[in-house]
Amino acid sequence: MTRSKLRGLLALNVALLAVLAIVSLSPEAGADGTQPAARARGAYTMVAGPIRTGNASAIWIVDSANQELAVVRFNDSKQQLEGIGFRDIAEDATRRPGR
């Protein structure tokens, strides 16, 4: 490897380290300049089960620490998970059912 390529790579690494230091040491802020609310570390339980549409199955994911439920299914044609629904369990528990 020539000296000019070595110096170029060394300069690039120093520049990348400087950018990394600036990004990691800068204070985080939300869009309005305030800190986002603290979110508890999730405690997840996943269960597979049938859904009403077709013969497909879904994965029900419950985050008991944050009181949330998400439902996803696997799309065979795209080879990826697709979100079906999301519920805030804590909000549902405090809401009074209407008629």
What features would you describe in this structure?
The protein has helices at residues 3-25, 89-94, and strands spanning 44-50, 57-63, 68-75, 80-88. The chain has 99 residues and is of the alpha+beta class. It has a domain at 44-94. The radius of gyration is 23 Å and the shape is elongated. 1% of the residues are buried.
Keywords:
4-stranded antiparallel sheet, alpha+beta, 29% helix, 99 residues, 31% strand
What is the radius of gyration? 23 Å
> How many H/I helices?
2
Residues in helix, %: 25-40%
Shape: elongated
Amino- and carboxy-terminal Cα gap? 76 Å
**SSE order:** HEEEEH
Fraction of residues in β-strands? 25-35%
Task: Point out poorly predicted stretches.
Answer: none
Overall average residue pLDDT = 84
- Annotation, overall tally of beta strands: 4
The biggest beta sheet reads: 4 strands, antiparallel
Order of adjacent strands in the largest pleated sheet: 1-2-3-4
**Structural classification:** alpha+beta
